Amino acid sequence: MIRAPRTTAFAALLVFAIANGAAANTEPSAFDARSVGLGSTGTAWLDSPAAVVVNPANLVFLEKGALQLTFQPIFVKQWAPVEGPDTRSTSRGFGPMVSGFAAYRPGPRWVLGAGIYSTTGYSSGFEALSAVSGQPLDEPRDISVRFFAIESSLAASVQLHDRVSMGVALRVPFATQSSEIYQEIFADRGQWAWVDQNLSGVGYPGGLLGLHVRLVDWVSFGLTYRTKVAIPMSGTTDVELMPGVVLSDIALKTTWYSPHAFQAGFAFLGYGERLLVAIDYRVQLHQEANRVQIFENAFSKDPLEVPFYQRNVHTLRLGAEMKASERLSLRLGISRGVSATSVRGLQYFNPPPGVSGSVSGGLGLRLRHVDLDFATLYTHIGKYVRHDEERCAPGVTVKTGCGGEYGIRSIQLSLSATRRFGAPRPQPAPFPERRVEERLERQERRSERTERRSGDGS
User: Fold this and answer.
1) Is 350 found in the same domain as 319?
2) What is the CATH number of the domain that holds 346?
3) For the chain, N or C: smaller number of CB within 10 Å?
4) Which domain holds residue 454?
5) Does residue 1 lie within any of the structural domains?
């Protein structure tokens, strides 16, 4: 009797792991190039149609409406001990991510929004391997994985008070994945096989709730809650037991979960509203959502449980923007986060467990009706993991904790174009006149500070 090829579960596990491997916080959370430049903040200040996915309460900042298109390619270099403990294999991957958003104001106190956006896009593989997990190959072979996930969303924002707005969004996810890997499918016999897998599915609808409060004229606060979403996926798997012996079109079903997430942030204005400083804190509850993944296949009546042991993700982000002129803005951001990967659940395509950091920078041009924003984000995480003799050993189907150096280095580029509807921005004055105006503004600010100090002294 042929047992169920458990490699199908491992293949899905690999794909989902690598899909999240491009960033140590497991989910790219920036859908706007201006936000990327400011360290992926935006809960309390983002005023573009991308607020549909960042904080829908912020849509009320738009005058009449806007259209936005964002392109974000991600370049990834990854290394892991794929061929065996303390070996090093390197992979280079590329993930193109495209997002589109629209917003329209039908009334004075409310705004509608919609968006289609990539939440994950990744494709990578390890090439010319001579072994996998210590198992020699007859000839050099490649393993590869690909994962793409998108969401469509409808949102509405209402101005409850001059200083308070609320927003809600309905999210519908879709995901597709494929992989080609080599795995010990029959652990009790020590039999390995090549597996080619394809899965896809539409998820159940979820929600995103947002709140924005302008505490004082120069301080704003934002808060969001994203609900957990389940994505049922189905497809087929082909298993090559040996050259010429292939089990084709094995039906496979599983469900993946996008976890609950909370994000809060503050935004501070200063220097005559030319300086913006923002800080955001985000937590994603992966530990509750993805402890195990259950697979059902046509070979077995008993479902297979694959452990993930993911941890909750905590990320702190800080960004600043300075208006160099009426048209040009310069941005800088940093973030620090904890990977969802645990040592017990670590596999070759996972980001390593531990703390990672990123740095970003960008610039923006404000034309009369159009905003053009560009940013780049660099992330690095690396860790040496001691070999787990029990979890990474012959006879274990889903091998985890294999000893060696794990790491990911990624560069994300981001370009956004936003067409705003409403009154055009005024034409900038000629350069000599602007210099005079700026000098008068500085003198006025100095006079105000002098008057305040004089008043305090009296």
Assistant:
1) yes
2) 2.40.160.60
3) N
4) 432-458
5) no
User: In which region does residue 344 sit, left (phi positive, over 0), alpha (psi from -120 to 50) or beta (all else)?
Assistant: alpha
CA-CA distance, 247 to 302, in Å (whole number)? 19
Does the pTM of the predicted model rise above 0.70? yes
Q: Is position 2 within any domain?
A: no
Q: What is the pLDDT of residues 307-327, one digit of tens each?
A: 678 899 999 999 999 999 989
Q: How far is CA 179 from the centre of its chain?
A: 21
Rounded to the nearest 10 degrees, how much is the dihedral formed by the CA atoms of 29, 199, 408, 290? Answer: 70
β-bridge partners, 337? 315, 356
445 lies in the same domain as 342 = no
Pair 54, 160 in one domain? yes
**Residue 358 contacts by C-beta under 8 Å, 6 or more apart in sequence?**
23, 24, 39, 334, 335, 337, 377, 378, 379, 380
CA 75 to chain centre: 14
Give the residue from 118, 71, 72, 76 showing the smallest Cα distance to 93: 76
The verdict on 391 and 436 lying in the same domain is: no
Per the CB < 8 A criterion, the answer to whether 34 and 364 are in contact is yes
Kindly report the backbone phi and psi dihedral angles of residue 184, in degrees, each rounded to the nearest multiple of 5, phi listed first. -80, 85
Of 18 and 162, more confident = 162
For the beta carbon of residue 2, count every other beta carbon within 10 angstroms.
10
Q: Which residues of 37-62 are buried (b: 16+ CB within 10 A; e: fewer)?
A: bbbbbbbbbbbbbbbbbbbbbbbbbb
Give rounded-to-5 percent helix, strand, coil for the chain.
15, 60, 30
Same-domain check for residues 318 and 446: no
Both structure tokens of 137: 């190959």
Burial class (CB in 10 A: 0-12, 13-18, 19+), 215: exposed
Does the residue 290 lie in any domain?
Answer: yes
Dihedral Cα 324, 68, 38, 431, nearest 10 deg: 0
Region class of 384: left (phi > 0), else alpha (psi between -120 and 50), else beta = beta
Tell me how many degrees the CA angle 404-409-410 measures, rounded to the nearest 5. Answer: 150
Q: Tokens standing for 352?
A: 């390593």
- Please, what sign has the CA dihedral across residues 80, 84, 87, 93? negative
Cβ(360)–Cβ(337) below 8 Å: no
Between 355 and 188, the higher pLDDT residue: 355
Tokens of 329: 């803005």
For residue 295, tell me if it sits in a domain: yes
